């Protein structure tokens, strides 16, 4: 019974190829990944990214193209726990990169459309010339765990139980009714069951922290219109450092930029989403 | 003969609905939009965004969804001057936003796949709470026009003749063999023929400045893997201010973030692309 030891995240993104329909993969969205009445958008992106990884690696000409390198998701309707179907279509296969689309639906209603390019992150060259610096955070044991979150928040966010998330005390004033107004939330992240990070997990992490609008004094969930994640390196085992920030809330929308850094201090993912301001 | 007075940009993105194939639009990529041996990626994105705008506005249920709100392009092969076909598919029509895909091809070879959400930017609410500030630039007449660009650059970039672009003297050290190393290029932008900005033009502008890698001492063209533009407001007439910047060149790729500000000081577009480091 290997499922007994499989991690919650691997169960969450598990897919079975459909025997009669090439490119189709079936899965089950678990109730444990809900937030604010829907299934978390990062988990949905990881499911779609996983389906495309399976589709590319099933073909000899793109067998090594396992990792999402860039993935864009457009959110069409709220996903709910239960069966999910992902239909993939390979658009182009190149030597280093392959591009495909994925349509994630439930009961015939499309939830998410994805366009993505996969490749082999381990084969990227080793040069790093970056001016970006990891966020300065107190050590995890001096940050604030989910157990301190307001009960109303946890009640709406079953997925928080899957996370060992420690937020920087400087960016959680909102939980005490004193949002900083700077539009920035940062902290440490790992999965509660110890499952180590990999590129698919980074897709979840890019949408895992509370919306930055909390830090602007706007409680409530912020529906994602679009989320693009660039995967820049395979993450090392251990803690991830995550920063979410916004600069431009305007016209009923805001952008949320995320950076994910691994334990070696490497910037492993950069993402941006466009979301609606909570009502 | 209205074409005689139509702007170069409107000619560049002009499309004709195919009489027998719903959702198909045909156009012509002009030689005047070439750069580094291909047609500029921002122009291609504007062609695809225009096709989706036509597709949405042709349907009564999405008639007002004229403007791209978020658009993601995945670049598959280099486009060349000549006929182009755009096949659109509407994925979902909502009350405020409609989502669709566009495949741009030449002679049966796909150049660009696009996933985008359109809406009506004029209908967005008026609230602006932004911490972003426009770039500080010397006035246009104290910036450096294209006429001062190295001849080798202009020879490879016919599209520069379409632009009235004035770069900040502080960010053109690379043109004199002294790149600043900061990974930032900024300046003023308008079309040479005086055509005023609109949302489709902003898609071009997001990819109009020289690659930021020039400022890192890496000449050569940087092929775009993926480019997403968020349109945040309709631009006012007049000059645009544009900033391109990168923070993380690593593993053979870099991100290029762009901001476009209009003459009223409003942040009208934010974009990010993932591109390959020039060889």
From TrEMBL, chains A, B:
Pfam families: 4HBT_3, 4HBT_3C. InterPro entries: ACOT8-like_C (IPR049450), Acyl-CoA_hotdog (IPR042171), HotDog_dom_sf (IPR029069), Sec_Metab_Biosynth-Assoc (IPR052389), TesB_ACOT8-like_N (IPR049449). Residues 32-118 form the Acyl-CoA thioesterase-like N-terminal HotDog domain. Gene3D superfamilies: Acyl-CoA thioesterase, double hotdog domain. Residues 1-23 are annotated as: Disordered. Residues 140-277 form the Acyl-CoA thioesterase-like C-terminal domain. This is Thioesterase family protein.
């Amino acid at each position: 019974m290997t499922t007994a030891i499989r991690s919650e995240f691997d169960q969450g993104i598990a897919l079975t190829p459909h025997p009669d329909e090439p490119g189709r993969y079936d899965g089950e969205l678990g109730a444990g990944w809900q937030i604010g009445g829907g299934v978390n958008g990062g988990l949905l992106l990881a499911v779609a990214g996983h389906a495309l990884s399976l589709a590319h690696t099933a073909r000899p000409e793109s067998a090594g193209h396992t990792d999402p390198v860039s993935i864009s998701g457009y959110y069409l309707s709220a996903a709910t726990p239960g069966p999910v179907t992902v239909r993939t279509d390979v658009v182009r296969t190149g030597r280093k990169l392959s591009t495909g689309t994925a349509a994630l639906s439930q009961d015939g209603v499309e939830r998410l459309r994805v366009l993505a390019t996969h490749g082999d992150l381990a084969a990227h060259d080793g040069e790093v010339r970056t001016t970006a610096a990891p966020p300065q955070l107190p050590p995890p044991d001096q940050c604030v765990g989910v157990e301190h979150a307001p009960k109303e928040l946890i009640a709406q966010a079953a997925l928080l139980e899957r996370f060992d998330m420690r937020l920087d005390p400087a960016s959680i004033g909102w939980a005490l009714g004193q949002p900083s107004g700077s539009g920035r939330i940062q902290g440490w992240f790992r999965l509660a069951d110890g499952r180590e990070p990999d590129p698919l997990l980074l897709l979840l992490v890019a949408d895992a922290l509370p919306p930055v609008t909390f830090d602007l004094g706007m409680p409530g969930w912020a529906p994602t219109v679009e989320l693009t994640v660039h995967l820049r390196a395979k993450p090392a085992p251990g803690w991830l450092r995550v920063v979410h920030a916004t600069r431009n809330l305007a016209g009923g929308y805001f952008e949320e930029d995320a950076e994910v850094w691994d334990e070696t201090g490497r910037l492993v993912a950069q993402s941006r989403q466009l979301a609606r301001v909570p009502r």
